[in-house]
């Protein structure tokens, strides 16, 4: 049976049979024409018994056997020596297969679980007998020059010992799935040359014990001082602090100057104190309910971020721990975006100076989709950060999962990382030396290959999900073992005592010393208080500023024409598609004032003016280069060349000498990770206009956590300002539920305390001034723009070039016709594309006593400007809010009390729009058209239904 398995796994059999037969034909013609090992194989094959012990041969080798039989009739009989040589050749092949098996699946036998709950699995591939070896072969010497052990010739016994030490100890590695041969050889060399057990001197061992003592000591101190309070203890996973210490120090030695860290709550307080150097007294104050007065809301202590500068062998390193809500892995893309901004600021395209570190839980790493989405960004041009070090605090348990079969569908929680061929190091949390070694290996690999790498620290969770939980209710057997476990610090201390590195009293003394330091409340880590990097960003000019709607966004006409010429100039011999050629030609006319501007030109002029003035622009989305509705064409494609690097031209990158960068990215098909990335980027760089554009506005649904937890609330919870801009195509053109609404009402519901802006501009001049205003005002607030679809080419949604020179962003656009103000009986207020439908209906019906005003900024609500428009029409008895969206959606429920506040005495407020609906829009175009007709009639007809009176 074992020999049959060998046959099934050997490269000499199965699907490779045609290749073997072809090789054999060459051998028959000329034995010297095939490689030596094949010649030895064919020489010996006729003397090797059948693999199942019978006289039969497997079908694929039948032609070979027949040929041997024919040759045997006329050729000399082989000697016994040939039989022996053939058997030795087979064993040589088997030895190589044994090496490959340990490299591939040796991790399955690794000693990873501190609780030792499972038996070693049955893996025949790792058994010598699987390859036909017996005890009699243990002293047979084989050439193993393809390994990195200390000798090229090893006995089978020595080979097995070396393989087991390397791949089946307290560190197990997965890397053989890597496509890059250099990377695979790198891992083989680093693991096999050390047997994964590097030399650790006595001082280093004492340092590791001190780190474990600090990790355990903090948790025990908090447990006794703040009984029952939530802290998401690290107990059971204390070696994670060893990993973080190693990471910071090793990173500094490798030239890293900044480490950007993202993690959820488990162990977060420990990292704050024992890695970043937060003062214990500050942590104690948070436990005791003290809070910052400058944050309207604040957040719980295990969501807080922190930054510091620490000393390393390579110089100062800046550490940043990002703020993170309870949504666990959602911080992943935020960290990547923040890292990319820091790299761009340094001009570091490879990721040599800034390191992203993501700390995961085992269940969330396997279970949350944002992990996969973020991994998918890793090697893409617009989002790469030079490789991320992932550390998994593997508690071997989910949130409340009591059965491993319900935790995931993969063998390891880290298997998702294999999608980008990230090597994975699994390490026993009870062995801090292996944890430190694995972390160092991960950093060295990242330095060499600029690729993601995973360190999976297999440990346990001593307490429940939080300190008020009783996990033994659902995991009784597991927690019996946990209760009996002395802890990683005690296990390692006992080991060092047995090795003579320390005395038992020394280990106890470390515990007492740490307790005394905690009592003092001072920082336990050496933090550099007076160091400031030249790359640090000064946010002070943008903080604590009063809200203002206005900014001087106009430009001189000469500058506008110069910019227009630059963005419509195409290199010689660059062949444009005929449709794009017309777009560029029309834009050139717009830039000369010969045609009114369309939306795409308004955008381009804003971008060009900003980069020319030193403000970088970063625009990303699933179709941002061309634009979902083919309106932008910021990336021009040479129709005679297809290669991106030589076949494209971006005019906005060629606006002026020494201009700021313009970056446009067609992102992967992801909302959550890409929006998180751009949010992270914007929080690290206030001088860049960062824009995320949804393909359709409602696709932002897939990133709702980012909108709810970060974009709308990050400033009031954490004091994190950002100027991120969201462009969300929105408009009812009869395209059905998924392609109509950007869910305007959701953003408005999140608005308070001037936390962000929600705008719906309706012409090119407005988008020009709005984008410029976002950067020129002295503060940074998220900007949500409901961008149009049909208005991109609407004949009336145009602006003269002069509006860019003589105007600004108007929060309210007034009536455009010269109506007699005292004859106006009704004011119709609206926002967005419905304005043009109202305008057309009014003209068609020859109505001259209804004024139409546009609310271009919905939040912060422009009370002063809106009230001024209402006062222009003193005889208007009705105000009607008209919208495309159903009544329970859109802006109606948000704006009605604001409008009511600005109404004149005796005025009435009514609603014109679609009826309330469970869906955002109807899917039948005929019904859409019918509803559109009804809402227009309601806008100009008698007030019905719910009416408010002033």
Automatic annotation (TrEMBL):
Gene3D superfamilies the UniProt entry points to: 3.40.50.12470, 3.40.50.970, Multifunctional 2-oxoglutarate metabolism enzyme, C-terminal domain, TPP helical domain
Stored CDD domains: TPP_E1_OGDC_like
One MF annotation (Gene Ontology) recorded for this entry: oxoglutarate dehydrogenase (succinyl-transferring) activity
All copies of domain Transketolase-like pyrimidine-binding, residue ranges: 597-794
GO biological process: glycolytic process; tricarboxylic acid cycle
Catalyzed reaction equations: N(6)-[(R)-lipoyl]-L-lysyl-[protein] + 2-oxoglutarate + H(+) = N(6)-[(R)-S(8)-succinyldihydrolipoyl]-L-lysyl-[protein] + CO2
Keyword Hydrolase: no
InterPro entries: 2-oxogl_dehyd_N, 2oxoglutarate_DH_E1, DH_E1, KGD_C_sf, ODO-1/KGD_C, THDP-binding, Transketolase-like_Pyr-bd
SUPFAM superfamilies: Thiamin diphosphate-binding fold (THDP-binding)
Keywords in alphabetical order: Glycolysis, Oxidoreductase, Thiamine pyrophosphate
SMART domains xref list: Transket_pyr (SM00861)
GO CC annotation: cytosol; oxoglutarate dehydrogenase complex
The EC number(s) this enzyme carries: 1.2.4.2
Claim: Oxidoreductase is one of the keywords in the record: yes
PANTHER family in UniProt: 2-OXOADIPATE DEHYDROGENASE COMPLEX COMPONENT E1 (PTHR23152:SF4), 2-OXOGLUTARATE DEHYDROGENASE (PTHR23152)
Family named by the database record: Belongs to the alpha-ketoglutarate dehydrogenase family.
Biological role: E1 component of the 2-oxoglutarate dehydrogenase (OGDH) complex which catalyzes the decarboxylation of 2-oxoglutarate, the first step in the conversion of 2-oxoglutarate to succinyl-CoA and CO(2).
Complex and partners: Homodimer. Part of the 2-oxoglutarate dehydrogenase (OGDH) complex composed of E1 (2-oxoglutarate dehydrogenase), E2 (dihydrolipoamide succinyltransferase) and E3 (dihydrolipoamide dehydrogenase); the complex contains multiple copies of the three enzymatic components (E1, E2 and E3).
Protein name: 2-oxoglutarate dehydrogenase E1 component
Organism: Thiomonas arsenitoxydans (strain DSM 22701 / CIP 110005 / 3As)
